[in-house]
Specification:
The chain is an alpha+beta fold. The protein is built from 29 helices and seven strands. A five-stranded mixed beta sheet has the order 3-4-5-7-6, with helices on both faces. A hairpin with a 5-residue loop joins strand 4 and strand 5. 49% of the residues are buried. About 3% of the residues have low confidence.
Length: 726
């Protein structure tokens, strides 16, 4: 479980979505009074109860009741407050054993509650949940600050830090002592008086604004784009059309088709729908989420968040929010992150111009052959004509590949890969433990060599109303040694479009990458083997590396031959088709790189400045123009819907981390290929024991050097994307 310190340091850890809007105040939100005297006995709250059942206890998802959360929060805060104050008020001289260890074991009730609340807000949200988020996020933030900024508690940590040389600490304990002290200072422990009061007010206001932003985006994503006749959907697979028909029926429009305003529903339309007007309509709805000048417009919310972030950074002694957020990363400094991004950007833009030229030739030829007006490639044409170029250059069509990409078979494939590489075994036990949604699958995880239990994996794969967009991995309980060995409860969450009764769920290559990516996060946490839980949290620009590494095994012949089976015939993907996929591996990398890097660069420029932006739309337009952004592409995440940046501090000034991690990822993959190939167990064992299992027990740059014998090289990344390496 997370330790109390990690809970406290996770600023607005429970941030999500909200509908309530409150003016920013200049005083901290009042923390709910925590009664010191025992309250009259009442029925136990199921949300704070100990988890029971197999796997050392599992969440009682069948007891999830949104109306129980307010009382549960109050109870969990009281419990955590008592535990932390016991450490703070201990009269004995401060030591590692009476400060750090009990703090790492404190907050278990709050940790369990956070897991339940996280699922409620991310997987099962509704208007009532939004309302509670708006009410409780600021309260929880203020509560965390009241503990984190307690001067007496800080003095206990400081005493251990000051005396660390004489305490006979192990290397791990010393790392914990130093990192904990630095985290306290970085988050305001040295502030006093009005400055401390203002910091608490800022954190509380940010928590409310994060919830507000998320709620607005979710509501725009719940919108449906209706289509009146099947002819407009020409080019789409029958199974996808059937899902659109089902969505319309559910919306009370049985004679129409309904496209949800989410990436998993929109992208196939942009790639395959012949109706250009429909593509433009769908594209505009999707890229303008949060930017329509209505009640769900997020621009004003972004402005408030940026002001608060910069004020906080200065208050804490940092030049900008980017410097504040990057103080505990591998890159350390915004300039280093920008340097990496700008090494890749020019080559990516050049490749986009080549890609557009290839598309334009096809569009011009079609106009001539059909005697229709010429078009100029626009953003809503990029995917559609890219598929035509793919077909022309490689004789490859995504529609030709998709029938072989059955979701359930690919899940079997990724499990098999983890067994081959890391001795992880997965056995489905769906129906034997509670789940929060009927379609969630569960898998018992064991060590194939020893038979020892590792944990439980939940998989929530399908899009639905109330579930946030995108894909993510989380743990409901993480491994640690302190306090007794704990099995892992991990969760992978995707937003695939479910199949029908007649057709299994088929996914695109991009979705298959996402599946393996999120499972890579799962592997990382299932393999974790740390004693102290506070040494499990890795830097933001490292955390994506294990997940990106795992994507590489998707297209190995061993996985494709065994698990890429045609959903009708059961035949494996033909070698000729596999060869075409491999040959096209660098296809459209200009687009993929530019749409991502544009978001990452704009994020860094947005936060690496002393004067906060006052007009996000204008800033976005002007910054992209200065960068030379191709007009045929938009950012993967435009600012008005950029949940990574504005539903928490998590990826703010940190979206670059995917590229930073991918440099390591490509270099790790090169290590396998330089040895015996993708399945080389000597490399896999070294990667597991040196990098994956060790959390943050040592500096991650040092761990990487220990694995690779040197720092990561950017050339494998450039080569993978088909860019010049000089």
């Amino acid at each position: 479980m997370k330790s109390a310190l990690l809970i406290l340091l996770a600023s607005s850890a429970l941030a999500g979505c909200a509908t309530m809007e409150k003016p920013m105040t200049t005083a901290p939100t009042v923390v709910p009074t925590v009664a010191e005297a025992p309250a009259p006995k009442a029925a136990p709250n199921p949300l704070t109860a100990e988890w029971t059942g197999p796997f050392q206890g599992v969440p009682a998802w069948d007891k999830l009741d949104v109306e129980q959360f307010p009382a549960a929060f109050t109870e969990a805060m009281a419990d955590m407050k008592r535990e932390v104050e016991a450490v703070r008020d201990n009269p004995a001289p401060a030591t590692f054993q009476n400060v750090h260890e009990p703090m790492m074991l404190a907050g278990s009730k709050m940790d369990r509650l956070q897991s339940l609340w996280g699922v409620q807000t991310s997987n099962l949200s509704n208007n009532r949940v939004n309302q509670l988020e708006g009410e409780w996020e600021p309260k929880l933030s203020a509560f965390n600050d009241s503990l984190m900024l307690d001067p007496k508690l800080f003095q206990r940590y400081k005493a251990v830090y000051d005396n660390r040389a004489s305490l006979n600490l192990t290397p791990q304990q010393l790392r914990l002592v130093e990192r904990s002290y630095e985290a306290f200072v970085r988050n305001g422990a040295n502030l006093a008086g009005a400055d401390k009061t203002r910091l608490m007010a800022i954190n509380s206001a940010l928590a409310q604004k994060f919830a507000e932003f998320g709620g607005k985006v979710v509501r725009d994503e719940q919108a449906l784009i209706f289509v009146d006749d099947a002819a407009s959907l020409t080019g789409l697979e029958p199974s996808l059309m059937a899902s659109f028909k089902a969505a319309a029926v559910a919306a009370g429009q049985p004679n129409r088709y309904a496209i949800k305003n989410t990436r998993s529903a929109v992208q196939p339309v942009l790639d395959y729908a012949s109706d250009r007007a429909l593509r433009e309509k769908v594209w505009r709805a999707f890229v303008n989420r949060g930017d329509n000048g209505d009640a769900n417009d997020t621009n004003a919310t972004i402005v408030e968040i940026l002001k608060l972030r910069q004020e906080r950074a200065v208050l804490l002694g940092f030049e900008t929010h980017a410097h504040y957020r990057m103080a505990d990363t591998m890159a350390k400094d915004p300039a280093k992150a920008m340097d990496l991004m700008m090494r890749v950007w020019p080559a990516a833009v050049a490749r986009v111009h080549e890609e557009v030229a290839d598309m334009q030739k096809i569009a011009d030829a079609e106009a001539k052959a059909n005697k229709t007006a010429k078009i100029t490639i626009s953003p809503w044409d990029y995917g559609f004509y890219a598929e035509k170029v793919r077909k022309a250059k490689y004789d490859l069509n995504e529609a030709e590949v998709k029938p072989y990409l059955q979701l359930n078979k690919l899940i079997d494939g990724m499990f098999w890969s983890a067994g081959q590489l890391y001795d992880l075994g997965f056995k489905e036990n769906t129906g034997q433990v509670p789940v929060f949604e009927p379609k969630v699958r569960t898998f018992e995880v064991t060590n194939l060599k020893t038979g020892a239990p590792v944990g439980l994996l939940y998989m929530d794969n399908f899009a639905r109303d109330g579930k946030r967009s995108g894909a993510w991995m989380t743990t409901y309980r993480s491994q640690q040694g302190l306090g007794g060995t704990r099995t892992v409860l991990a969760s992978n969450n995707n937003n695939f479009t479910a199949g029908t009764d007649d057709t299994p769920t088929l996914i695109s290559l991009d979705d298959a990458d996402t599946l393996f990516h999120e499972f890579g996060h799962g592997i990382h946490y299932l393999l974790q083997n740390v004693y102290y839980p506070d040494l499990a949290r890795v830097p933001r620009d490292f955390v994506e590396m294990p997940s990106q590494v795992n994507e590489n095994w998707l297209l190995t012949p061993e996985v494709l031959n065994r698990f890429a089976l045609h959903y009708k015939t059961g035949a494996p993907m033909p070698k000729a088709l596999v060869d075409k996929i491999q040959a096209s591996s660098t296809f459209n990398q200009g687009f993929a790189t530019v749409e991502y890097l544009a978001s990452a660069i704009v994020d860094m420029k947005l936060h690496n400045r002393t004067v906060p932006v006052s007009d996000p739309d204008q800033f976005e337009r002007e910054t992209l123009a200065q960068m030379g952004m191709p007009k045929e592409i938009v950012m993967r995440h435009r600012l008005p819907q950029f949940n990574h940046l504005f539903t928490s501090d998590g990826y703010s000034a940190g979206y670059y981390s995917y590229l930073w991690s991918e440099v390591m990822d490509a270099d790790v993959w090169a290590a396998f290929n330089e040895a015996g190939g993708p399945w080389d167990r000597k490399v896999a064992d070294r990667f597991r024991t040196i990098v994956l299992q060790t959390g943050n027990e040592t500096d991650r740059a040092e761990a990487y050097r220990a694995f690779r014998g040197r720092d990561p090289d950017v050339k494998p990344l450039l080569a993978r994307r088909g860019f010049p390496t000089k």
